[in-house]
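User: tokens in, sequence out, please.
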């Protein structure tokens, strides 16, 4: 029984020691991390680039006023139907369509004796209804953006929104940025060691978050002040990564001839804007004596 009690106390003490942090920030003397037992160099890679938008959206609105809400709804959706069919022919994988309806009652209006216009807001004073069919167009392939927008203008909607662009970063782009940041960290380390007359040793740590080069690992030690300027890098083309395809490669069924003919007369230029992206990574090498 005594042996078991002694073993239990030892295990409890070991568990408590394992949960105790090795040092507290601000202590004058702390144990160094394992990778600092030998000379090392910590290099922060920092890169930035610009890539074009790969998403866009706009909405076409068709408004109709009729005596009843049902009549206005039927007429509004009929006006939007031709454009919906023409856009759907471009391919479901290239854009997404969604139609919603906004119904607004129009009340009886009258003038007072002093000439001021007044509007009733009671349910029994509704004169007619205005229904707006909103065709929301979410473009996933910007190779068809201009064609889709021309069709929207040719359909003669009551209103058409401006095009909103966006960037949806895919996993391949994120991985490429991380790889570029690691390469930049290694390049900076090579330049620094060459200038100091030393040689790079084996890689000890690669941290994609860059946190190893900050104070959470170097607890109690002075943090690196400031950041080096990011290195500009050229992002891989969208064609190479399969996100966009040339316009001439798009094979889509043609929209109705009447709407397509009108769309040919619409001249628009929609160039996707560039979005800045940045990434960083920390790489720690060992140091060897110079030759």
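Assistant: Sequence out:
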């Amino acid at each position: 029984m005594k042996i078991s009690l002694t073993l239990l106390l030892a295990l409890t003490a070991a568990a408590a020691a394992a949960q105790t942090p090795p040092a507290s920030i601000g202590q004058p003397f702390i144990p160094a991390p394992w990778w600092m037992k030998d000379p090392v160099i910590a290099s922060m890679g920092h890169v930035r680039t610009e890539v074009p938008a790969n998403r866009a959206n706009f909405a076409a609105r068709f408004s109709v006023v009729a005596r009843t809400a049902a009549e206005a709804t039927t007429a509004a959706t009929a006006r939007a139907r031709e454009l919906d069919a023409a856009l759907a022919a471009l391919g479901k994988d290239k854009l997404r369509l969604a139609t919603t309806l906004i119904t607004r009652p129009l009340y009886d209006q009258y003038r007072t004796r002093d000439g001021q216009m007044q509007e009733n807001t009671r349910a029994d004073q509704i004169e007619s209804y205005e229904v707006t069919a909103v065709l929301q167009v979410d473009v996933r392939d910007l190779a068809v953006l201009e064609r889709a927008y021309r069709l929207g203008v040719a359909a003669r909607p009551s209103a058409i929104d401006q095009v909103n662009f966006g960037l949806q970063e895919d996993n391949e782009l994120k991985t490429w940025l991380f790889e570029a940041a690691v390469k930049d960290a290694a390049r900076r380390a090579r330049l620094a060691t060459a200038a100091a007359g030393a040689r790079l040793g084996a890689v000890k740590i690669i941290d994609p978050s860059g946190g190893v080069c900050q104070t959470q690992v170097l607890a109690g030690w002075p943090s690196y002040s400031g950041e080096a300027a990011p290195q500009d890098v050229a992002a891989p083309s969208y064609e190479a990564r399969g996100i966009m395809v040339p316009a001439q490669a798009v094979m889509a069924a043609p929209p109705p001839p009447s709407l397509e003919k009108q769309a040919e007369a619409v001249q628009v230029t929609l160039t996707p804007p560039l979005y800045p992206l940045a990434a960083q990574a920390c790489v720690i090498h060992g140091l060897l004596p110079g030759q």
